């Protein structure tokens, strides 16, 4: 039976000018309603307007586009198909969806659904990770021009530049009945497995394990990051000097002044922040 799909393509994504996927999806017995997106802020409203008109939503873009769409997907409970057209595509990587558009189209057409958890902070849902500190500086410095030129390597190049300027800040976190005072350069709260162009939040993280994986980077000098980077990349930093890690279903973070919070690569809220995991919140088409 032919399924009706709302296809949302971010034309500003790194590979957004791509008609190959449209033709292939149509060949795979999907009836498409195409909306080209110029401003991703309107994605939840667009998805909501098609709630009773389509069987699924296909989002073509990167993690930022998916982050913009997630609240609309939650409110409608429409299944999500992913076309990885962005730079990092960390959610696709977590779900085992390859960057090959032809393979991604076949996965959507197969109809195999997995229910995944979502993170939530101050009313905003997220897929991969939310963080404050160093990662926010990276987000602020990471330009579209750099992503188009360098691809996923733009994250590493920008991170090296940001490390020179990062300064530790004081924070209080509350989780699992504890209150902990920190002096840190970054607090990261992960729901999925990958973030930041293939970094691993922790080696055994899954997007359906009904927990948040939390780490705090408590180093004093930028050069200490160089020794940590290989372990952070693989998610093997839990025993590293200068890294504190936790698991929780809820976490509160307080800072002396409001600090911006990055969710899936976009700055969306500020401290004080209340985080929680929402189990089996969304149906996604996966291999």
UniProtKB/TrEMBL annotation:
The DAGKc domain, residue ranges: 1-125
GO biological process: phospholipid biosynthetic process
Entry superkingdom: Bacteria
InterPro entries, per database record: ATP-NAD_kinase_N, Diacylglycerol/lipid_kinase, Diacylglycerol_kinase_cat_dom, Lipid_Phosphate_FormReg, NAD/diacylglycerol_kinase_sf, YegS/DAGK_C
Species this protein is from: Gloeocapsopsis dulcis AAB1 = 1H9
Lineage: Bacteria, Bacillati, Cyanobacteriota, Cyanophyceae, Oscillatoriophycideae
PANTHER family hit by this protein: LIPID KINASE YEGS (PTHR12358:SF106), SPHINGOSINE KINASE (PTHR12358)
Family: Belongs to the diacylglycerol/lipid kinase family.
Protein name: Lipid kinase
Cofactor(s) the protein requires to work: Mg(2+)
Xref: NCBIfam families: PRK13057.1, YegS/Rv2252/BmrU family lipid kinase
Signal sequence region: none
GO cellular component, one term: plasma membrane
């Amino acid at each position: 039976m032919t399924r009706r799909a709302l296809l949302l393509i971010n034309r500003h994504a790194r590979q957004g000018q791509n008609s190959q996927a449209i033709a292939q999806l149509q060949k795979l017995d999907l009836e498409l309603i195409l909306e080209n997106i110029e401003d991703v802020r309107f994605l939840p409203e667009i998805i909501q307007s098609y709630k009773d008109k389509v069987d699924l939503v296909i989002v073509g873009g990167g993690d930022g586009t998916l982050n913009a769409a997630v609240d609309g997907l939650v409110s409608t409970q429409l299944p999500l198909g992913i076309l990885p057209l962005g730079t990092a595509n960390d959610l696709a990587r977590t779900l085992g969806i390859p960057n090959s558009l032809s393979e991604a189209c076949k996965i959507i057409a197969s109809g195999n659904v997995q229910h995944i958890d979502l993170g939530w902070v101050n009313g905003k849902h997220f897929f991969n990770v939310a963080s404050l500190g160093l990662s926010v500086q990276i987000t602020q410095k990471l330009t579209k021009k750099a992503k188009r030129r360098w691809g996923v390597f733009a994250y590493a190049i920008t991170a090296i530049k940001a490390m020179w300027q990062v300064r530790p800040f004081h924070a209080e976190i509350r989780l699992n009945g504890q209150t902990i005072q920190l002096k840190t350069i970054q607090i990261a709260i992960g729901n999925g497995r990958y973030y930041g162009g293939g970094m691993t939040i922790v080696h055994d993280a899954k997007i359906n394990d009904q927990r948040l994986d939390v780490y705090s980077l408590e180093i004093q000098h930028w050069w200490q990051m160089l020794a940590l980077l290989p372990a952070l990349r693989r998610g093997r930093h839990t025993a590293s000097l200068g890294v504190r890690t936790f698991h929780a279903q809820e976490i509160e973070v307080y800072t002396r002044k409001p600090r911006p919070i990055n969710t899936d690569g976009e700055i969306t809220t500020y401290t004080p922040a209340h985080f929680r995991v929402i189990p089996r919140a969304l149906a996604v088409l996966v291999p």
